[in-house]
Amino acid sequence: MTVDILTPDAKLFSGEATYVGLPGADGSMGILDNHAALVTTLQAGQVIVRTASGEEAFDVQGGSVEVLNNVVTVLAE
Predict the structure, then answer these.
(1) What is the mean pLDDT of the chain?
(2) Residue ranges of the domains in the chain?
(3) Does the model's pTM come out above 0.90?
(4) Contact indicator for 47, 6 with CB cutoff of 8 Å
């Protein structure tokens, strides 16, 4: 799936991933390929992105996420 993590100042990540872990407003959630469509808010925590070459973590202070057709877009604060 394609993942984009964007802040008002920069693009933190853009590329293919096998898993995305998110600090959802109602608790932690994981996104895999072919996940159902989803729009939700994020709380402060870490966004974890697993790729073929390893795992990366990004600290966020909140924001929102949209999952649609194997595209995950995180708008982070």
Answers:
(1) 96
(2) 2-76
(3) yes
(4) no
